[in-house]
């Protein structure tokens, strides 16, 4: 995990041009295996499945899952106003489908995202579902 990430939007704002260039010049997209590796820095995260797709869970609760049909990561617990802002600010990275209209979820395109952005969202969701003990121990270790 990166050093305590700040706002994911701030991270994206700084990296939006790099991500666009990456798409144009064929820089390698993040893979599911890389997402698993990034998330493994968080205690209690285990590989699993959700709706027949690869997923990561914490104590049986969904952290994230892959949408193989469009190469996106499902990010949970994203307030509706934040989702709208993310999609409007960086539409090449964040999007949604009508299926998720009534859920606090945004989709992140792995082909355009940077690891720091993914880590920030995963850590935020992880903090809401991990045990208090795991969060306390993680925080006590300090930045990597």
Question: What labels would you give this structure?
Answer:
144 residues; globular; 5 helices; Aspartate Aminotransferase, domain 1; disordered N terminus; 22% strand; 42% helix; six-stranded antiparallel β-sheet; alpha+beta; single chain
Description:
The chain has helices spanning 8-25, 32-39, 80-89, 115-129, 132-141; strands at residues 45-50, 53-58, 61-67, 72-76, 94-95, 105-109. Helix 1 (8-25) crosses helix 4. It has a six-stranded antiparallel β-sheet with strand order 1-2-3-4-6-5. It has five helices and six strands, in the order ααββββαββαα. The protein has one domain (8-134): Aspartate Aminotransferase, domain 1 (Alpha-Beta Complex). It is of the alpha+beta class.
Please state the second-level CATH architecture: Alpha-Beta Complex
What is the number of helices? 5
* Uncertain parts: 1-25
CA(first)-CA(last) distance: 7 Å
The gyration radius over C-alpha positions equals 15 Å
Summarize the amount of helix as a percent range: 40-55%
Highest CATH level, the class: Alpha Beta
Brief characterization of the structure:
The chain has 144 residues and is of the alpha+beta class.
Could you give the topology of this structure?
Elements: H1 8-25, H2 32-39, E1 45-50, E2 53-58, E3 61-67, E4 72-76, H3 80-89, E5 94-95, E6 105-109, H4 115-129, H5 132-141
Antiparallel strand pairs: 1-2, 2-3, 3-4, 4-6, 5-6
